Each structure stands twice: as structure tokens, then as C-alpha cells.
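Incident review: delayed structure delivery

Summary: a single-chain prediction request sat in the queue longer than the usual turnaround. Root cause was a stuck worker, restarted by the on-call engineer. No data loss occurred. The affected request and its eventual output are reproduced below so the record is complete for anyone auditing the incident later.

Affected input:
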Amino acid sequence: MNPLRTRRSALKALGSTALLAAAVTVPSATAAVAHERKSRPSVALDWYDATAATIAAAGAATQITNSRTWAISWLAAARATREVPPGVDRSAFQDAALASAVHDSLVALVPSRAQELDTALRTTLDRFPDGPAKAKGVAAGAREARRVLASREGDGLDPTSVNAPFTVPPAAPGVWQPTPPAYAPAAQYGNRLARPFLLAGPDQYRLPAPPALDSARYRADLAEVREYGAVDSTVRTERQTETATFWFGSSLTLYTEPLRVAVARSQRSTPGRAALVALFHVALVDTQIATADTKYAYLRWRPVTAIRTGAIDPDPEWTPLHITPAHPDYPSGHNTYAGAAETVLTALTGPRTAPFELTSPTDPGVTRTYTAWSQLSQDNLDARVYSGIHTRSADKAGLFLGKRVAGHALHNAERLFGVL
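Output delivered after worker restart:
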């Protein structure tokens, strides 16, 4: 897919090239920090934070379900803010519409947080005088929330459906088996049965098969993860261990702050900011669906199984640095997420930004500084090898798949925003 054509299609779907015109200019770190501290209060950021807090406090146990919550809420907001009725204050209407859309969507999807969300909505609406702009904005947000929620009814992304039962095939070379120490049942199999937002089907971008077990590529992959990913590795550096631990947590959690940075530094209007958040999460839902499709199509075993029981220098005692997640190796889900996130952020905000700091719940006390979205992807790629839970081929394939699915989302964004 032509990246320039993809970006142009996304810009067209989001309304106009003016919406994203400032994205390619990278301010200095000092200017960016000053702007973020002095800029007027932003309803978009307020509700971004409310969404993040809602999911952190009472979200679903399954990552894709939480991605769905983001996507629905902000797609409703992006649609509600696009068309301003004549004769009303544009800013007041759009802020009220965004707050109403996100509020109503979140209350429907996470009802246990209704009280906190109701309070947040009152706080937002109290900023504006009563009148047509506020009233029509609230009504528009409520209307679009209802529409988007109805359109996603029964999409198979609820926690029970996501973790649909999977029958593990008999043990054989290369075939995934439950992994130590818990030997837990397969997770996320149901993702590949779910209904995407924009993909024609879960298998639309299914990857080619992973490297054959008798290939030089496979031998190199296994040798690398055996040496660098072992819990007692003598070749992994302190920095590499930190990378593995820093990026071991949930991708949704780790990418919440980078996306917020992009939204906060954006000079776009309220609809433009809402569209950025919506497209990001729509692409990530579809990416996770496509990831599960490829994973369960090939059922490639994890490094711990390959090293302990495979034909190449088996070591029954080998243990990875981190516990292996309960699903197949190929491709890496962390890397499909990274590839999709990088693609959307690059297309809609440019490849670089002023330095920003990032922390991780799985590596308390450590702060990393980034200046380009691709740096997040590179750390993800390396981290899963250093953790001992993925081969490098699975990581590279993940980045490739995530970028393809996100490119598809950008190219077809008019289907999200072009028709209300």
C-alpha cells in the first residue's frame, strides 16, 4: 500500500487537509512543554483522561474489549462534533457534543463508573452558559453514542467471546502447547471470530507461514532467544533487561500516554482530536483481531517449548526471563500493536515529536524518553526477545502485520467519518 496515498485518504476522510496541517512541524522540547503547561483547558484532554481513568478503574480483563471501549466512545465523539448547526457557538457545541458522546458511551460500556462520569459531565457542561449550543451539543453526542453502540452490538469482543474455548492439538514439533509455569488454556482465540470495524474479515491480512523448523532463519531465531531471553542469561545487558521489563506490560496501558502526548500537542480542532483517538483505537481493535487470526492459523510453539522439547539441543530446564503469555508465538501481539500505533501516529501527526517521558507499571522507578514513534516499536521488537517469550521473526512479522492493518484503517477512514 502506498503510504502517501494512505495518508491522503485519511486526511480526506477526516474532513480537510487543514485538520492535520501542523502535524509535520516538530516543536522544540522547551516550546512543547511550555505550550502544554500554558494552553487553555481542553475538553478533549479532560475526556481522554476520563476514558483512561474509567478503564484503569473498572475496565474489562481483556485488552481488546478495552480497546473497543475507546474506539466506540471516541468514534461517537468524532461523529458528533463534525457538523455544527447554524447559529450556535461552534466551540461550545463541539465541546458539549464530545463530552456527551464519550460520557454516554462509557456509561453504557462501564456502568460501574456512572457516578464519576456524571460528575465529569456536569463539570464540563458548567463551563458553558445554558442555550442552544450546549443543548444541541449534548443531544448530538447522545445520538451518536446510541448509533455507534447499536452498530457494535454483538461484535464478539466481550470478555467471554474473546476467550472462547480452544482445543489444543496433540503435541508435535512446532505446534503450540500450554506453557509453564501455569500451563494455562489458550487465550484470545475468540478475537479471530470477532467482527472488525474496517477489515473485510479477520484473515484479510493473514501473514505467510513462519520460518520452517529446518530453516537457517528458525535456527538463528532460537539461538538468539535461548541466549538473550533466558532468566539467567549471561549475555543480556542491564539495559536490555530493562527494555524487556519496561515493555512487558499491557500495550494498551503503555500506549495510553504516547497517544495523549500526540493529542495534547495537536493544534487541531475538537473534531480532529476526537478523530485521531478514534482512528487509533479502531485500528488497534482490527489489528488485535488480525493478530489472533494469524496466531491460531499457524499455532507456532513458544520458545520455551521449542527449547525444552525441540530437536535442536533440548534443554528441559531452560526458563525465560518473563512468564510466557498463553497463546501462540507468531506473530507477536505486542509488536502488531506497536506497528499499528506507529502507523497511525506517523500518518496523522508526523514521525517525530518533541521529547516526552514514559513510565511503565512493570518497571517502577524507570523513565524512558522518546522522540519518535518508531522508537517505541524498536523497543517492543527487542523486548520480546530479551524476555524470552518471542522469536525475532515473530516480532518482525508482528510489526509488519500491525502496519498493514493500520494502513487499511487509514485508507478506509471515510467509512468511519464520511457517513453519519
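Verification: The two ends are 27 Å apart (CA to CA).
Action items: add queue-age alerting; document worker restart procedure.
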